[in-house]
Design goal:
about 400 residues, alpha/beta, seven-stranded mixed beta sheet, four-stranded parallel beta sheet, binds phosphoric acid mono(formamide)ester
């Protein structure tokens, strides 16, 4: 079986923990692994900008003794001449043992996996998912907090387009954690993530207005979405309206900050500015954040004040550094050099249906509809695009 990583649901909880265990073995001496993949070649196909993901993958492959070919500038790739993604992937796949793909369209990695005979790793597909960032995030949580289970994590910022939060939210809930989603106004978690989280047994979602963080969040009532086990949630209001909610002394184990993903906004929204306060010294004194680690997938563009970098809770540069050992572990697995515990598959069964199509203009199946037939599945009776997971519409 080809070992792709398209969505975080491709790896069970046991497999994720196995990868982190392997990364723990690798981390103390990165130089001692250089014989593992001699003779292997990785294709690094980045059709959208990146610093950390591309360079940490390339570092990981080279630390393992493998070599890398890179296409990191879309203007010098044949995509600029109009080549379809499927054709590009077929070519790269025929040259290498493993392809790492970043692409601006949602569902691009799923599509690539259809054409590739060798493993495809999703390094970020539009506003959809970024599962290897989640490996890095979970690994950082384990390093900083000692566990990935039963944590309380605040997601903060652009939750609509920040694909890292989509993969992370899925993983956190699978590990029994609680999520407090505080979104920039109008940039809430997308429906495809909410629908997926809502199917986890025992979990429910509650819209609330946080009432006791005015010092930090500079508003008396801050809208948030709590995603948690039903028994840990405040009672719902009869009409479904947001309920007033005190976080109280509840510990936030981590706050995960994201930037405004301006590159995905419609031109009319491009001038959008930060409305939630930036993370600065005020967060240092709020009781909820006393032991909070601050994570950010980076790049940051103003959401975290630079002076915060000196605080021991600022873990985002440590987080980026952990991207190398965890991606070394992932590459070893993908190329069949490491095995992982199986565990129960977290991917729900989604039977295919016909008579629907995707209308999401950010989806690869819509952008390349001339060469890709629509593929629609159902989750809980909701028809959704196989590639980008958004709701499909009747033909
Ligand atoms: N975290 C992350 O994806 O960063 P890059 O865009 O620099 O790869």
């Amino acid at each position: 079986v080809k070992r792709d990583l398209i969505t975080i649901h491709d790896l069970s909880n046991r497999a994720l923990e196995g990868l982190m265990d392997l990364a723990d073995e690798i981390r103390p001496n990165l130089r001692s692994w250089r014989s593992e993949l001699q003779g292997f070649l990785m294709g690094s196909l980045f059709l959208e900008p990146s610093t950390r993901t591309r360079l940490s993958f390339e570092t990981a492959m080279m630390r393992l003794g493998g070599k890398v070919i890179t296409s990191a500038d879309v203007s010098t790739s044949s995509a600029a001449k109009g080549e379809s993604l499927g054709d590009t992937v077929r070519i790269v796949d025929s040259y290498v043992d493993l392809t790492v793909l970043r692409h601006p369209a949602a569902g691009a990695a799923r599509l690539a996996s259809r054409y590739a005979h060798r493993p495809i790793i999703n390094a970020g597909d539009g506003g959809h998912e970024h599962p290897t960032q989640t490996l890095c995030d979970l690994y950082t949580l384990r390093a900083e907090k000692g566990r990935v289970r039963q944590l309380t994590v605040m997601l903060y910022g652009d939750l609509l387009y920040a694909r890292t939060t989509h993969s992370l939210a899925r993983a956190l809930v699978r590990f029994g954690s609680s999520i407090v989603a505080v979104a920039q106004p109008g940039l809430d978690l997308p429906d495809f993530v909410i629908e997926d989280l809502a199917r986890i047994p025992g979990y429910a979602l509650r819209h609330v207005l946080i009432t006791d963080m005015a010092d930090v969040l500079q508003r008396d009532r801050v809208p948030a979405l709590l995603i948690d086990r039903e028994e840990r949630l405040p009672p719902a209001s009869p009409d479904g309206a947001p309920v007033l909610h005190h976080l109280g002394a509840a510990t936030i184990d981590a706050i995960y900050v994201t930037r405004l993903q301006r590159e995905r906004y419609a031109p009319v929204d491009a001038a959008r500015t930060l409305e939630l306060p930036i993370l600065d010294h005020r967060f240092l004194i709020a009781p909820q954040f006393r032991d909070t680690v601050v994570l950010h997938p980076l790049p940051r563009v103003g959401e975290i004040a630079p002076e915060f970098d000196r605080d021991p809770r600022a873990a985002y540069f440590r987080q980026a550094a952990l991207g190398v050992p965890i991606r070394m572990a992932l590459i070893l697995w993908a190329l069949g050099k490491a095995s992982l515990p199986q565990g129960e598959s977290p991917a729900p069964e989604e039977p295919a249906v016909t008579g629907f199509r995707c209308l999401n203009p950010a989806c690869i199946s819509v952008q390349e509809s001339a060469v890709i037939p629509p593929e629609v599945t159902t989750l809980g009776g909701i028809p959704r695009c196989l590639f980008c997971e958004t709701r499909a519409e009747p033909l």
